[in-house]
Amino acid sequence: MGSEIKQKEYLDVLDEQGNKTGIVKSRGEIHKNNLWHREVAVLIFNLEGEILLQKRSMDKKDAPGVWALCAGHVGLNETPLETLYKEVKEEVGIDIDIKKLTYMFTLRNNEEGNRHFIDIFKYITEDKINEFKIQTEELTALRFFNYEEVKKGALNNDPNLFLKNDEPTRCIFAWIDEKGIY
User: Fold this and answer.
1) For residue 161, what are the β-bridge partners?
2) Which residues of the chain have pLDDT under 50?
3) For residue 123, which phi and psi values (nearest 5 degrees)?
4) What does the alpha-carbon distance between residue 119 and residue 105 come to, in Å, rounded to a whole number?
């Protein structure tokens, strides 16, 4: 039954402090009923300090056709690190070394319809863009962008970016600006 539940993307429901409640709901039910859940995202940088963004498929329900970070919902009985490893492997086709991940912080996002805790990580890759393998069901392109240009675009609410001038995005940029890419 466990693998069947994971395939349908069931998630652990959290309380307002981010603790598991023991309740399991489908991703759709969680969003429909505005329930707390956990997500992960990773900022993948290359050795030149450029940030990897993935262009979401036009078939995606949320934010079709925009450039976004590699991210996902933490599945039932998964840890954030397991989800992160799985999402990166599935979406962009590289194996990340969990020991080289940097945990940045966890944000509590009380957005209507998407109340979640999101664990943000940073990863430096030596992989070149031609070594990545795109998941064509969810993405149409991958590209490394100049970090400052992405930051400027997000803070100016560029419609081509998933990142917007909101608290979570400002926190991400403030952390990178303070602590650095490397």
Assistant:
1) 67
2) 1-6
3) -145, 135
4) 6
- The residue whose two tokens read 């194996």 is 95
Q: How far does CA 53 lie from the centroid of its chain?
A: 11
Would you state the structure tokens that stand for residue 163, as one six-digit string?
């990142």
User: What are the pLDDT digits (tens) for 100-138?
Assistant: 999 999 999 988 878 999 999 999 999 999 999 999 999
CA distance 13 to 145: 35
Pairing, β 37-45 against β 114-124: parallel
Domains and CATH numbers, the chain: 2-144 (3.90.79.10)
150 CA to centre of own chain: 16
Buried b (16+ CB within 10 A) or exposed e, 73-85: bbbbebebbebbb
For residue 6, what pLDDT is reported?
40
Structure confidence at residue 7 (pLDDT):
55
Return the ∠ at Cα 160 (arms to 157 and 165), rounded to 5°. Answer: 20
Dist. CA 102–CA 10, nearest whole Å: 27
Residue in 100, 122, 161, 98 with CA at minimum distance from that of residue 41: 122
